[in-house]
Amino acid sequence: MLVCSRCAGIYFGALITALVLLFTHNINIHLKFFFLSLIVMIIDVLLVNFNFYDYNKTVSFITGSFFGVSSFLLIAEETENFILHLLPKSKNGE
Fold this sequence. Notes:
Number of domains: 1
Strand content: under 5%
Largest sheet: none
Low-confidence stretches: none
Radius of gyration: 17 Å
Number of helices: 3
Distance between the termini: 50 Å
Number of strands: 0
Helix content: over 70%
Order of helices and strands: HHH
Shape: elongated
């Protein structure tokens, strides 16, 4: 592959999330979920770099997918909120 397993997981998680969001427009993510996925991925990177265990493609793909899902959801939600904030408000409260 041209990218590492973790990066492939990030792209795969974002792709699957984008496809799911085509059919459902329910975007709700808490920053806690995003930071949890970020921390899990960072812990995996640090444990591999400090030789606590050998690099495992499956674990890297899973932690990358977890982060890809949460980051795509966060970006989609913030983009939607930004666009809705730019739209003019209706005068009759609709």
